[in-house]
Request: fold
Amino acid sequence: MIRKITPFLGNQSQITQQGTVNNKVGENNPEFEKKHPKKQYSDPLMQWPIRGLAFTNDIGAAISDIAPKAGMMMWIPALMYFGADIYDKYRNDKESYDPNSKRGLKQACFQTLASVIFPIVVVHAGQKTASLLSRNSKDGLSLQSKEEVVRHHLQNMSEVRLSEYANNKELYKKEYNQALDTMIDDTMRKHNYKNPIKLLFNLVFSHKHPEAMGKERRAKIHDFINKRIDNMFEMREQLIAGKKPEKMSKKMFKEFEKLKESYKNNKKYAANYNSHAAKDILKKFEEKQIYKTKMVKTIGGFISLGVFIKFIDYFVENVIMHKYIGPSIDKFNKKDLENFKNQFLGRNKSRK
Reply:
């Protein structure tokens, strides 16, 4: 009888260890690396569309002119994204847990530049461009100048009785143009003596720029507003007669008729209910003009943001952060940070 002898292969632990060694050898083998290349780390917070959350505040900046409350609300998802991204970079080095304050500071700088400062500047530059392109129109004024003139005229309409000028609109024009010139001159005088930092802040973040009127030819401004005044009195005459003006929508004319009934039933305003209703609806008509100019500027801001949004990310990450801010932060050491903290805390304590 022939006995088969099974060779001894070692215990289970020896087999496991041998298999692990073989695996490691295989992984270090160039041929193995060619067949099984390692996947490069891809930050999920920097991938679109999640990355788009960082720009909701910039969308808010673009629409704040036409929807201020919605514009403010758009900052909420952006701030949540900033916090999550900065904390993630501080806590983790890609896929491994390794808290590092320098890494967190770098990401905070990146988000500040790439998601707040540069995009907001680009949005306002787009709005400014759209406004200036309007100078090629027949009236030769920028959108911003038109908006400021109409806004000022709205204020004037609230302060006077249009019925008193119904038969003398030329007097209304003369008085209003004098008031407008005075306002422009006062605005430019104050504007020229403003702090340069305030001027820059207003240029980038403010939506009201009455100083824009001072940069236009005064004759063009007068021609523009005089045409609007002629149109206003013509529409008023038609409304008083119960006719719908050609430039007024059916919806707005129906609103005028409702206003008439409302004033007619109010003892306080019943005597001149037609005039009160006409004035209110004409003011709303002018407000609509302001809204239209704001909408065109908003579209300009969106176009500008869409064109430059990815370039901003690339420029900040590969130029500003990589060449300037990143190396500067890397030079910091614990002693520098401790000295800064001690000096800062020491000043605070001395102030208290």
User: Anything to note?
Assistant: The CA atoms of residues 94 and 237 lie 71 Å apart. Residues 136-299 form one domain.
